[in-house]
Amino acid sequence: MTLRVGAGSPRRSRRAHGDGGAALVEFAIIAPLLFALILGLFSGGIALGHKNSMTSAVREGARFGATLDHDADWADKVIARVVALAPTDLDANQVCVKLVNAPNTDVEASACADPELADAEPGVESVPNDDCAVLVWAQRKDKLEVVFFSRPLTLNAASISDYERDCS
Questions:
Q1: For the chain, which terminus, N or C, has the lower number of CB atoms within 10 Å?
Q2: Could you give the CA distance from residue 133 to residue 10 in angstroms, rounded to a whole number?
Q3: What are the tens digits of pLDDT across the range 41-78?
């Protein structure tokens, strides 16, 4: 009878013993980057959702303002409509409205709580001469959050509609 050494026991190489630790180290290196990427995607998606909501509300507010009769509380009604359409994304201090007579942009009615936002008024170059236009614009401060840093964002939305009534 011949006795063979190691015939009944499986043979393992030295390399097979160290693979579990290497995978753990690789995961420890990649995991923070992966989590930062995922968090950045979520944060950016939320900011994009806020921007889309603002844009839709401002656009609808401009349409609504174009159909209203021009009276003393016209601007307040338009702002209330915009805020009602984006209640979690905007408040009345973040929305400005203006009814102008192009091309000289004589202001017929306006409302803007934030003087800094008033400077961000959209242009009326696309409005034909002697037409009235409703301008609605909004601005919101937001943040892009990632594990390693946070970046402030300024979300802007603007819309212009032709006023369907006599604005004088």
A1: N
A2: 85
A3: 898 899 899 999 999 999 999 999 999 888 889 899 99
